[in-house]
Amino acid sequence: MPKTSLTPFEEASKPEKENIEKTKALFGEQIKNYIDFYELLYNLHEHVGNQSIAKNIIFDNRESVVLMISARIVVTSKAYLDLVLKGYYYDLEVVFRSLVESINVMRLLVECKDIEKANRYAKKWLKGKLDLQTVKQELNLTENKQFSLGYGELCDYVHSNFKAVRILIKPDFILGSIDASPKPAFKPDFVSNALFPHTKIVVSLLLENFQNIIEIEFKTQTIVVLKKLNEERERLKQRTKNDLS
């Protein structure tokens, strides 16, 4: 083993700076679009909380859970981008599965038109008894092949299945003599797929769920910005598609 003045932790962290530089150089516009969506959600979440305090609003179970999950998504979406930038693609897939589950719980509570039923689901969530299968059934995801395939792939990462762990191993490995790197390596294909702004879905859900307490001017401004960011996202997607063809 070659001598080095770096500790193992410092040695493993060395590629992070290079990965950040490469990612920003190749995907600067996509990163900005992701951050813009993130900040839109952050500001909306803060606005709802501030309005509830200013107007002395007492939320029911459903509204309380939606706001709690929103806070979790705001925090995790920032951590998710940090993983993308530094090259920890395996771990971001684990985090992304958790985000998907959180967003679907929020969808269930917001999209359910039966308020009493939604409050019952929220109460179950608060007691740790709202299972994933119920959420999937209520959102008609159990028969959705595209969702099942994508979610199954994310589960491979959570459970350390071979199909997922392979990204840490050199492609020409021979079983019995495996070079599995403990350092994050830059993979442009992963970055391109990872920078989907999932927070835009949460913005729409919050706008719908708290429409009665969001100030009209703030809501109008948020919708305008959301539209512009969606248009920018579509432009970037099309450009990426053209670059690959």
User: Approximately how much beta-strand content do the residues carry?
Assistant: under 5%
| H/E topology pattern | HHHHHHHHHH
Shape field: globular
**How many DSSP H or I helices?**
10
Describe the structure.
By secondary structure, this protein is mainly alpha-helical. The chain has one domain. Helices cover 73% and strands 0% of the residues. It has 10 helices and no strands. Helix 2 crosses helix 4.
Observed structural traits:
mainly alpha; 0% strand; single chain; 245 residues; globular
Q: What's the helix and strand layout?
A:
Elements: H1 8-54, H2 61-86, H3 89-111, H4 115-126, H5 132-138, H6 145-158, H7 162-165, H8 188-194, H9 199-209, H10 216-244
Brief summary:
The protein is mainly α and 245 residues long. It has one domain. The protein is 73% helix and 0% strand.
